[in-house]
Amino acid sequence: MKLLPILATCLALPAAAQAQESVTIALDWTLNTNHIGLVVAREKGFYADAGLEVELLPYSDSASTAVLAAGAADYAYMTSLGFMSAKAAGADIVALWATMQRENGRLVFNASNEAISRPADLEGKIYAGFGSAWEDALISTMIEADGGTAEYDTVTMGTGAYEALASGAVDFTLEVATWEGVNGELLGREQKHFTYADYGVPDQQNGYIGTTSATLTQDPQQVKAFMAATQQGYQWAAENPSEAAELLIGAGEFQNPELVRGSMAALSEGDYIKAGSTPVGTIDKERFATMARFLFDSGVLKGPGGAALDWPGDVSGWFDQGWMAE
Q1: Quick one: 271 and 132 in the same domain?
Q2: Which of 22, 81, 108, 179 is 20 to 30 A from residue 11's alpha carbon, by CA?
Q3: Helices and strands counted in the chain (H then E)
Q4: Residue numbers of the domain that contains 297
């Protein structure tokens, strides 16, 4: 008889409280506003309501695509380039989601540099880079689209590129407008920029979330639950950017909370996460294919072991949004 109250209490508990399935997602970089929907979904209880306990695996020296492909995480947050490079090289992973509905990267230079007024002026200048083949394909395309010759010097500096540019040690670099761009404004740096899509580079979505083909096949209900809760998190963040920023600040260790607040404002004002009536997270199949073709044609994507690739003709199998279906 003493068991009856306990049994009644258990029956009264919501399903999420009775059994939480553990799920992991590897991040592509240190926690930032690109990951806002993941944090919101966790902090607002959207994952718990879906019966999930989600752990955000911190960025390490291993790319999130590699962590996912190796089975060390259930899901991964990946850059567009990171995902497409890994997929082309044979990783059995599938994209489920795109966070940014348009490109938020840009080429930036100091406003005081009177020698630069158009991409063709970058010829012979010094670029502070990050070490990927994508950078040269992008910059060369922009220079040549503007009538210049793609000859410039590169110094690989990583995140030190922004200080080098500010000091005038280099002439230009690439940045994410909604993070480094916001930080530059907070620091009072007077800079100008060129938008990639204005000079021959296809506009792209970015910030993919993906899983393995095995997970998609073997546990479609988990995929649907995780992605629907994630979508709810990003939707809420897009509609409540100020409150979302505070949740992210509370979840991480940020030296400058104003950067988080400014970044969320930029994401909201620029309609990066939510664009019109398009459901949050939607992958545009035409833009996906166009960017993949650009990377193939530029020689950026390589096969297993760095082998040259032929255009497969169809990359629609690289992503799957069946989880969105009613």
Answers
A1: no
A2: 22
A3: 14, 10
A4: 15-102+205-324
Residues 156 and 275 in one domain: no
Amino acid residing at 103: E
Contact 318, 89 (CB under 8 A): no
Q: What share of the chain is helix, strand, coil (3-state, %, to 5)?
A: 45, 15, 35
Answer whether 23's CB lies under 8 Å from 228's CB: no
Q: Which DSSP helix (H) or strand (E) runs through 257?
A: helix 257-269
φ, ψ dihedrals at 54, nearest 5°: -105, 125
Q: What is the separation, in whole angstroms, between the first and last Cα of the chain?
A: 44
Q: What is the pTM of this model?
A: 0.92
What distance in Å separates the CA atoms of residue 296 and residue 314, rounded to the nearest whole number? 12
Kindly give the confidence (pLDDT) of every residue in the chain, 326 residues in length, as a single tens digit, with 9 standing for 90 and above. Answer: 444 444 344 445 444 445 799 999 999 999 999 999 999 999 999 999 999 999 999 998 899 999 999 999 999 999 999 999 999 999 999 999 999 999 999 999 999 999 999 999 999 999 999 999 899 999 999 999 999 999 999 999 999 999 999 999 999 999 999 999 999 999 999 999 999 999 999 999 999 999 999 999 999 999 999 999 999 999 999 999 999 999 999 999 899 999 999 999 999 999 999 999 999 999 999 999 999 999 999 999 999 999 988 888 899 999 999 999 76
CATH number at residue 147: 3.40.190.10
